[in-house]
Amino acid sequence: MTAHPEPSSTPLPYIACTHDFRVDCSHCRIRSLCLPVALDGDDIEKLDEIVQRGTPLQKGQYLYREGDRFQSIYVVRSGTLKAFRTTDDGREQVTGFYFPGEILGMDGISKNAYASTARALETVAVCEIPFSSLEKLSAVIPSLQRHFFQLMSHEIIEDQMLITLLSKNSAEQRVAALILSISSRQARLKLSATKFRLPMSRIDIGNYLGLTVETVSRVFSRMQKIAVLEVDNKEIRILDIDGLRRLADIGGR
Amino acid sequence: MTAHPEPSSTPLPYIACTHDFRVDCSHCRIRSLCLPVALDGDDIEKLDEIVQRGTPLQKGQYLYREGDRFQSIYVVRSGTLKAFRTTDDGREQVTGFYFPGEILGMDGISKNAYASTARALETVAVCEIPFSSLEKLSAVIPSLQRHFFQLMSHEIIEDQMLITLLSKNSAEQRVAALILSISSRQARLKLSATKFRLPMSRIDIGNYLGLTVETVSRVFSRMQKIAVLEVDNKEIRILDIDGLRRLADIGGR
DNA sequence: CCCGACAATTGACACAAATCAACGTTAGTT
DNA sequence: AACTAACGTTGATTTGTGTCAATTGTCGGG
Q1: Considering only CA atoms, which of B192, B207, B197, B168 is closest in space to residue B241?
Q2: What whole-number distance in Å separates Cα of residue A145 and Cα of residue B135?
């Protein structure tokens, strides 16, 4: 029921495959997007031994909470999560959305406690990788160590891009950038890049982009009016991707 | 960076020690703030062997530029740098300021090329740590590997805090938070936490905080008027640190 | 020491996005 | 199927910060 609508022409969707949640790394559908990319046969098996596959999370459930003792990092197998921090005065700040193949929990390494909370936006399956095992394995498999360093570095770059977005761009540009980001992540998953369902609410979008819900809503309306987007609640269809790209990076403040 | 307790009681300033730029790690004044914290005697020597200490950078010189081939990470020994990215349309986004004991360059790991440019705000001395050597050493010294993972994780957390600041806080709160951050970094260096010279221009501050120069200037004026700060160009004196803290985290938007 | 260039401050005004308010829509529950 | 609470949209109004402009202050070089 949370299944992404899928054009009949596209191959199998990567979502809600609750039946395959015990599949090992070498047969996983998203192995090409996950840690194994850095590894060959033997090493994948070693990784496979430390990976834990739990039961799926239901919408609204927590994968971990801010302050929880850090023990593992997680790879999204199917579904979507949001990560957020709670400020001193109790407000939330969404720091990211996580799609299949993406890794979360790395902010917990620094203080041995998660610095953010991760919550399922829909039914979610994850692979859990105990960090201590990953550390040991990294010391013996150089390419794994390298790859993990790269993943963390990549997270830093992503955060810096968000900083730039928040600091320099208008409401319209921020929303456009998010839609484009989701679109390219859909493409990475071999799903339609132009027609998809947003897994998060307007509140989450606004929170993530540093805007109010009203502003987000108005931007969607405007984009629909100029025929760049077709918006039906959470269903999005990109009508003019170049127009959207233009909205995303030109005409700043 | 979290404050690491300083065992030695030497009150010497940690700045502009151009004469000691060949000192080895175990005798370095900022060793307690740097990678060696994770190491003991023998291992410090191993680290010391891979560390390179070049000649100081003059104000305005570049440590590395966006797109340069990534080879090393750097630890600031003395002085201050700023890191920034250039957006597609040519504007700068300052992503961080780096004080002695702080590490920069980690954003280059992901793509084997720096994702940002680092420029000296004043005369700067750095230690260069070739990444390939650090990788090899990490595989043999578990505590070094762990520490380096933690450093990267810490950078992620810092970036997320900046994201929150930009997304949720007013101009006044942003400036207050930056001053408090610099203040605590001064304290970490055993320098005055209440009286210091800002190494960066108003332009850089505004750029970092997502504000215009004019707004930054106005906020400083206001804070001076309510006797929280004394501002004389780049010289700052904090008159009421609790007042400043209150400005930083209450009365949001 | 004065000059020029750049950095910082201040004021007047404009505007994008927040806030306040009302209403329509969706989805989950009984 | 009806109910309800949360979510989403739209309009009117306010406000914080950006923009433009003018002035003063600071620093390095000849």
Answers
A1: B192
A2: 8
Q: How many Å does it take to go from CA B123 to C1' D24?
A: 29
Query: What number of residues does chain A have?
Result: 253
B127, B52 contact by CB (below 8 A): yes
B38-47 residue pLDDT tens: 888 889 999 9
- The model's pTM: 0.91
Report yes or no: B45 and B14 within 8 Å, Cβ to Cβ.
no
Residue holding tokens 């090393």?
Answer: B72
**CA–C1' nearest nucleotide, residue A217:** D9
Which residues sit opposite B124 in a β-bridge?
A: B57
Helices within chain A (DSSP H only): 41-50, 131-140, 142-168, 171-188, 202-209, 213-225, 241-249
Q: Which of residues 217-236 of B touch strand C (CB under 7 A)?
A: 217-218, 220-221, 231, 233-234
DSSP structural state of residue A148: H
Low-confidence ranges of chain B (pLDDT < 50): 1-19, 251-253
Chain A 157..196 CB hits on strand C (< 7 A): 170-172
Q: What percent of chain A has pLDDT over 90?
A: 77
> What per-residue confidence (pLDDT) applies to B6?
39
Return d(Cα B17, Cα A240) in angstroms, integer: 57
Any strand D atom closer than 7 Å to B212 CB: yes
| pLDDT tens digits, A141-156 | 999 999 999 999 999 9
DSSP notation for B106-121? GGGTTTTB-SSEEEES
Bridge-partner residues for B235, per DSSP?
B197, B232
pLDDT classification of A21: cutoffs 50, 70, 90 = low
Q: Which two tokens stand for residue B252?
A: 């949001």
The partner residue sitting opposite B153, judged by closest CB among A91, A110, A145, is A110
